[in-house]
User: What shape does this take?
Amino acid sequence: MNETNDRGFDLETKVMLPPEIRGDPEFRSWVEQLRMSVMSAVVQVHDDVMAALDDAGRKVLAAEGRKRDVWFVTGEDGQSLLKSVAAIRSKIVRELAAARTEAPPTLDEVRRMVLAFHDLGRFRVVCTHASDVQAAIRELLGEPPRNRLLGKYPIAGEVKDYVHDLRLRKPKSGHRAWQFAAAVESNDGPVFVEVQLMTLLQNAWDRRNHPVYEWTREGKDLPDRWIISDVALAETLYLVDDQAARNWAEFVAICNGGAR
Amino acid sequence: MKPLLLGYGAGGRWFVIRLDGGPRGPFVERLNGIARQAGIVGLSVDLLAEPPTEALVQRLADYLYSDNTVNEGRLTRHLTGFLARSEIPHRYDLRPGAPVEGRDLFGREDEREHLRGHLEAGRSVHLRAPRRYGKTTLLGAVREDLRGRGRACVVPDVSAARSVVDFLAEVAIEATRVETLRDALAALPLARGGFASPDISPSASKKAFAERIAGDVSRMARDLFGALASLRAVLLLDECSTALRFMLPRKRDEARMLCEMLSDARRSGAAMVLAGSSGLTKYVEFHGMTDLVRDLATVDLAPLPAAQGRVLLEELLYETGIRPGGEVLDACERCLGEPVPYFAHALVAALRAEFDRGTTEFTAEIVQVAYETRLLGAWGNTFFRVYRINEQDYPDQVRPGVEAMLNVIAKTKAGAEVEELRRAFAKHVPPALEGSHEAALACAQEDFDLVQTDGRYRMRCKVICDRWAMGEPWLAGE
Assistant: This one.
């Protein structure tokens, strides 16, 4: 976590925080209260998604007639469903720095800023095959995808397809997923839970690359050669996923007495 | 669905609750609300991947009532105890019919504090309570408290003492068993010939002490109590009233001598607790010896306050594996009346017997049935054995009179007036003993937890009253 000087400036970014939360303990205590009050709403979304996917997973297995892992949901083992205190502080500072305001914001303004984070709550649905991602999306958003998660949580903005949508595919990043932010009512009004759906390989790439993401988010450069090579890795995994899904479909057909 | 771990941290320690299945969102909200109200300084809260090293992991089920609502009181106690004072939540052992020890002692903080305060200020105490109210348990706790402050305690069993010599021999034996007192006591004449070695039976050892004491009772008593006073040892005389009640009608002089010796010992600086009921004070009054007990401070041990009684029931039910519900707790409270821990343990043991038979969903009706068929039935006889008239030391000719009084008292919750009792007593004793009804009533007060309210005597403990009202012959000694 960044340090602040006597006047409340975040030393690295020169951003002024409200006086009530300039001290580290005060900031932590304030954010933890906020997290506490929205936690149950986020857990509820997570529970609903897990319950829906439990049922859908059984349907997939029944259709295929094979036993296998279809998907899992992160946070299921208690992994944090909420952005950490440090990550919240970091995001506040980034947003304040981007806003370039002269006066420090009020505590209420910062509070509203945090509650508006689209990834204040977040979890991931990690699927074995690319086809499973599509099945999960159908289960969660309907067919065609609607603007409500499970028919009850409104989606803020659009459902983003970082795999196929050329508008969204970033030439310098290998992050590939379907994702959206669902709004849920909490004690503090609506808060957002970001749900990402991706394959095992996309998740593996993302996990491996997280330190790189942190590095570049801080504005630090990497050589072009390195970036090209690393994005190429992600695209290679796309091909692997694509072929693996085809192979699997063929395998299921063979098992079920289909053409060889 | 794997369990979600909800962690509350303060001061580097984490209290983690595993949310096992079910709709977890509402639980998180409720648990967080409770944590917030608990107001623990520096509280952190998080959903955790794994419990941190310094974590106490608890099951959600341990904080739920049977209708799945959160037991706020229990969670608050455990949460604040662990995060603010590093206390590991205690699980109360179900011990029907037996004294409890250590952290199993529930409540009684004030009485414990008062006892300790009096003793540390050099005042001796009469610990007053009816049978089975927890005197022995409380004395055990005070012994631990005093030991922790470097004071030795001598806790003899004087219930079987039939004479002053018996009484002193029991005190002497117990005192020489206390390591820190042994060497100093070895210099006394009563230790002439050395203390009994461990391979000599207690009865032989007691006999040897008794012989030496009988040689010069007054001097031996003075020496013994004087030595204990100079060593700042505290005498905790449990069942003291039993010994005195045996002696008073039979060996009045011995009883007086014993009271005088104990009084002299206190005047010379010996600190002691005499455990018995308030009836004992009255009984001593009848025998004209009030002056010998007037210096004693008094500490009364009443039933637990209702709220504490409910918590004890809750704790025992959780420990038994029965998740309590409001309806069940209400029913338990109705059965118990003013909560006496002894009967709370007995009632939960009765419910456990139902649980062991396969009952999983408990209702008020099941509690009532368990109470009536088990606690008030043959199964519960053990708990009432001590309330049989034959277990008490009443002269044979007086016993029918006491039984008659108890029958009258148990007839109604409001009890009976003194005059009613006198008449009932008089009908059942020889004319020469009619006048002893007050003394008999004083003893019955101790034995059967009688209290006087608005001029009427009633049985304070509903369970004893219910049992006695059933008119079972075995309680009256047949």
